[in-house]
Write a structure and sequence with these properties.
The chain is an alpha+beta fold. It has helices at about 1-10, 15-40, 50-55, 55-65, 75-85; strands at about 95-105, 105-115, 120-140, 145-165, 170-175, 180-190, 195.
Length: about 200
């Protein structure tokens, strides 16, 4: 029993040894802070070691990268302008149009507005019965390609505002899936070249 107690005391570090190890760890940590962390992260190099090792260059790169503007390919010039300035101006006169189409059973038809990028209008449409619709746009000479903005089923009306993300024709396709004719009336107010039936 006496031998085991004596052996455990010999293996445990003394308070003096622990204090010395802690002091050494603090000196090493402070040295690393002054010679590597401060030059690399903050550009502060009191000893000159960070510059010698090239660590101060790490700090110089970050602000240049942050200062470069980030371009989003999905944002057009017109959309960016509307985000930066709440006033939108147009050289075209304000238009008000109302068009009506009648869809027979299982028949579809379109009404479109000819628009330049950034043109906008407010709209409402009403149908005498439920219809399916696709509000979409097509670029000039796009063939069968189009961009859908809003798709709905079994609706009798819709209201909103629209801004053309690109030059082309933008509007609605309605389909009457019922067995009775349905009349759809569209009203638009805004800035665009013309509203017409296809």
């Amino acid at each position: 029993m006496h031998d085991i107690t004596h052996r455990n005391r010999a293996e445990s570090p003394s308070s003096k040894t622990l204090f010395k190890a802690t002091a050494i760890a603090m000196v090493v940590g402070a040295s690393l802070l002054v010679t590597t962390v401060l030059p690399a992260e903050y550009g502060i190099d009191p000893t000159g070691v960070g510059g010698y090792l090239g660590l101060t260059q790490l700090n110089a790169i970050a602000p240049q990268e942050a200062a470069e503007p980030v371009e989003d390919p999905m944002i057009s010039d017109a959309q960016l302008a509307s985000l930066l300035n709440p006033v939108w101006k147009s050289s075209a006169p304000l238009r008000n149009d109302t068009l009506t189409i009648t869809l027979g059973p299982n028949e579809g038809a379109e009404i479109k507005a000819q628009m330049q990028e950034g043109d906008r209008f407010m709209f409402k449409w009403e149908a005498q019965g439920p219809v399916n619709f696709d509000m979409h746009g097509e670029r000039p000479n796009a063939g069968d390609e189009f961009t859908s903005y809003w798709v709905g089923r079994n609706k009798t009306n819709a209201n909103g505002a629209f801004q053309a993300p690109f030059e082309g024709v933008h509007g609605w396709y309605w389909h009457n899936g019922g067995n009775q004719p349905v009349t759809v009336t569209v009203t638009t107010t805004g800035f665009y070249e013309k509203l017409y039936k296809l």
